[in-house]
Amino acid sequence: MAVPDIGNSHFCFYNFECQDFCLLFTRITVEQMTNSTVFQFTKQNLANIVSYKIELMNQHKRKELQAVKVISNDLLTDDVHYISVEKPFDFKAGQVVAIAMHADDEPRLYSIASGINKQHLSILFDVKPDGELTPPLSLVQPNDTVYISEPFGKFLCLEQPATWIATGTGIAPFISLVESARAENIHLLHGARTLDKFFFQDYLEAQLGHNYLRFCTTESNEKTIAGRLTSYLENTENLPTDNKYYLCGSSQMVIDVREILIARGIAFDNIIAEIYF
Amino acid sequence: MSKEALYGKTLSELKTCVKDLGLPAFTSKQIADWLYKKHVTTIDDMTNLSKKARTELNDKYEVGLMPPQSFQESVDGTKKYLYQTSNNQFIEAAYLPEDNRNTLCISSQVGCKMGCLFCMTARQGFQKNLTSNEILNQIASLPERDTLTNVVYMGMGEPMDNIENVLKSLEIITAEWGYAWSPRRINVSTIGVVPAMRRFIEESEAHLAISLHSPFNDERKQLMPIENVYTAEKVIEALRDYDFGRQRRISFEYIMFKGVNDSPQHVKGLLQLLNGIKCRVNLIHFHPIPNSPLEGSDYKTMEFFRDKLSQKGITTTIRKSRGEDIYAACGLLSTKKLIKENNEKDY
Ligand SMILES: Cc1cc2nc3c(=O)[nH]c(=O)nc-3n(C[C@H](O)[C@H](O)[C@H](O)COP(=O)(O)OP(=O)(O)OC[C@H]3O[C@@H](n4cnc5c(N)ncnc54)[C@H](O)[C@@H]3O)c2cc1C
Ligand code: SF4
């Protein structure tokens, strides 16, 4: 990237090389530049420096994100989407990717919700009506472009026997783990408010059978347990004390469930959580 | 209808306000002066503004400072102030007087989403991000304001999870038109939310304190869920991208838990992880919180740990425990005044 023309400004006095000067400005706000009494710039000089500064920052983001084509966008309930995109890299089940609509946007994080051997990479997300990313992301069509980072993260749920606990879209990494044949000795507990929020339940039921428990707080049917997942954890007599517990979902769920598990005698070092902050 | 607060606005925001009201451009600088240098509490106190300007400002704005609701004082002089925020919630700020420095530990969020196992704030869940007004009000409305020498963002909340407002408040504290403090009087803590931490490093000059608490991935995960997303290793890798110069300080906070993270292997692990980073380490005694599975290491173990790290060239201190009787350790602040909306939960 070419360094900007900063004219014959006062800075020459300080013997800065142009490049150093611009790097220095990655640390100084536009406001401070505008009001500086030490450095005096013309409007054009300043505009050049500001755009250079922004470009430097964006370069960093761009380095991390790559363009991929959208393969499909399925609406699972009124506000939850399952989007598949081209898979430009391998990943480990349980990892996350950062996603953005444009290369320079601030990306958001999503658990990968598809198996490691699937042709495409998928995510599961709910739309936050005032959110920056999820409303436009919910509208993408096949062949549109979105930007994703390389996979990262360490919520790999390697140890078994284990109890996996999720609420809402927090089921995503566990779908990836089941699809990656990593669910031999596990129980999966999923909590949701309504019956339509047990995403991929037919698949999970087929794979896990009785080891898959659904807790619904506002509705019930023969396949779900009416009531709270937390009440179950407080009262069940079948709570293995030596299992690893892997929790995924909102911060409040993780806090509440962890507190119950610890009160019921589970060692804190057997509890690992991924929080969708 | 409640009025918008002027306190907490940057100079460029104040410029927009005065422009929208059709007032002369220089009024913004005058307002900044009244707010951040003279700390006036009403618009009518801004006596060098024309009567017309004050009337127009009063129609839409207020200064927006709120005194603390209550305070508790510890036997060691530490004072814990409770401030009310919008939505009738509460945050805490701890004033820590010492021989030649007086530090204020301020909050950046009501509650926190990060779920650290050892933290009381985590237990209350997340309620909201503080505005720059609410962040700065903790300083501006403090009875000891004029005696302050340092501010640390180590109270309730993860500052990097509210990066916009934190950066705005830092700009106001350090700008010539603001408090005009040196950024070296400010220390901002993080558990290592890497993208926001990068922004903080690039857009501010304040010191950075990283809460580490274990050098090992498997163990840090048990204490801090963030380790699943941004590992300590990734945080350090990100730090290596920057030149912090001679003045700017990076420190690592390390709460010592008995039998968990206080062994000689941990010293080795830390040395390996921090290799080549110019930094200091602060060892912190753990204040036990109710129903916690963790206990604090004893002081002998802490001294051993400090000596081992120091011998290897890492400046290491044991942070003095302050205000234990009123429960005011930074990062362990708590507020009991909470409502849990149980019926909203999906689990
Ligand atoms: C490790 C990790 C994994 C995740 N995985 C998933 C996943 O698999 N599926 C999933 O659905 N989500 C996941 N998330 C959450 C996800 O990253 C996003 O936070 C979420 O999708 C919202 O993004 P958004 O851009 O639409 O909303 P944002 O713009 O980030 O806003 C989030 C919320 O805050 C509110 N808000 C925005 N700005 C303000 C403001 N200034 N003041 C007050 N409120 C405001 C919005 O109304 C919205 O409700 C994960 C998060 C993490 C950290
Ligand atoms: S230690 Fe800090 S980041 Fe962790 S939960 Fe407490 S306030 Fe949040």
Tell me what you see in this structure.
The complex is a heterodimer of chains A (277) and B (347). Chain A is α/β, with parallel strands linked by helices. Chain A folds into 3 domains: 11-61; 66-148, Elongation Factor Tu (Ef-tu), domain 3; 162-275, Nucleotide-binding domain of ferredoxin-NADP reductase (FNR) module (Rossmann fold, 3-Layer(aba) Sandwich). Chain A contains 8 helices and 12 strands. In chain A, the strands form 2 sheets. Chain A has a 6-stranded antiparallel β-sheet with strand order 4-3-6-1-2-5. In chain A, strands 10-9-8-7-11-12 form a 6-stranded parallel β-sheet, with helices on both faces. Mean pLDDT of chain A is 87; it is low at 7-27. Chain B is an alpha/beta fold and 347 residues long. Chain B folds into 2 domains: 4-62, DNA polymerase, domain 1 (Orthogonal Bundle); 70-343, TIM Barrel, CATH 3.20.20.70. Chain B contains 11 helices and 14 strands. Chain B has helices spanning 11-20, 27-37, 51-60, 120-123, 132-140, 163-174, 194-203, 217-223, 232-239, 264-273, 299-311, and strands spanning 4-5, 61-62, 70-73, 79-85, 89-97, 102-105, 109-111, 126-129, 150-153, 186-190, 207-211, 250-256, 280-285, 315-319. In chain B, the strands form 3 sheets. A 10-stranded mixed β-sheet of chain B has the order 3-4-5-6-9-10-11-12-13-14, covered by helices on one side. In chain B, strand 5 (89-97) and strand 6 (102-105) form a beta hairpin. In chain B, helix 1 (11-20) packs across helix 2 and helix 5 (132-140) packs across helix 6. The longest helix of chain B is centred in the C-terminal third of the chain and has 13 residues, at 299-311. Chain B starts with a strand and ends in a 28-residue tail after the last strand. The model of chain B is unreliable at 330-340 (pLDDT under 50). The site of iron/sulfur cluster (SF4) has 12 residues of chain B, from helix 4.
